[in-house]
Amino acid sequence: MTGATAEAWAPGPLDRGFFARPTLIVARALLGHLLVHETPEGAVAGRIVETEAYLGPSDPASHAYRRTPRSRMMWGPPGHAYVYFTYGNHFCINVVTEQEGVAGAVLIRALQPVAGVELMRRRRGVEGLRDLCSGPGRLTQALGIGGHHNGHDLTRPPLYVARGGLDDGERVGRSARVGISRAVDWPWRFFVVGSAFVSRGPTRPWRRHLKGRATPADSGPDRA
DNA sequence: ACTACGATCTACT
DNA sequence: GTAGATCGTAGTG
């Protein structure tokens, strides 16, 4: 259980073509894959169970709604990390999508701890498995991700996305995105239905009431 | 130069 | 359920 090295279980990184697709496709397709960080202190990894899509100038909630120095990475090459600091306390990590020159990124919102759990506990200062990576600020702390990872190529160690997958019977759910003040009803959050490791309780993500017009809240065709 | 506000988390009532 | 922490980014003057 504990003590397994990355080499013992991790397949290679996903290739760049995986990320060079429309952002909404990548956001859903990332579910089940692994975010891996290998450091001198040890290897840690988690299975992606919750994501959010952020587009370019067409998306009022996106950092790329307007082009700024901070968000320039979102126009950069696919498969690279966009890491930003927020609320004076937390880092969040995105995977850049689309062709270079087109803005788009997927925020990783929650992981199911898979390896390096003791190191995660040490970094987080909490014990509960469900408290280690269930939130965008929590998972960066657990994995040791910081501002210096901004622009890192996530198809290359030491920080990369590796092939995982969804089990038969696991379904993809959608909801509105969390923590935003514009485009609040756009259903661009994706999560593994029933996972105990999503950032908002496992039984609660459906509880958003639709106001006025219907939104496509049903899961679409799944398959990663 | 100055101000407002977060793609959040934790602790407390 | 609500508030405070805490600071870089972005927008305004």
UniProtKB/TrEMBL annotation:
InterPro entries in the cross-refs: Formyl_transferase-like_C_sf, MPG, MPG_sf
MF-aspect GO terms: hydrolase activity, acting on glycosyl bonds
Enzyme class: hydrolase
Keywords: DNA damage, DNA repair, Glycosidase, Hydrolase
Region (Disordered): 204-224
KW Signal (keyword) present: no
Pfam families in alphabetical order: Pur_DNA_glyco
Top-rank lineage group of the source organism: Bacteria
EC numbers on record: 3.2.2.-
UniProt-listed PANTHER family: DNA-3-METHYLADENINE GLYCOSYLASE
Recorded family membership: Belongs to the DNA glycosylase MPG family.
Protein name per Swiss-Prot or TrEMBL: Putative 3-methyladenine DNA glycosylase
Organism: Geochorda subterranea
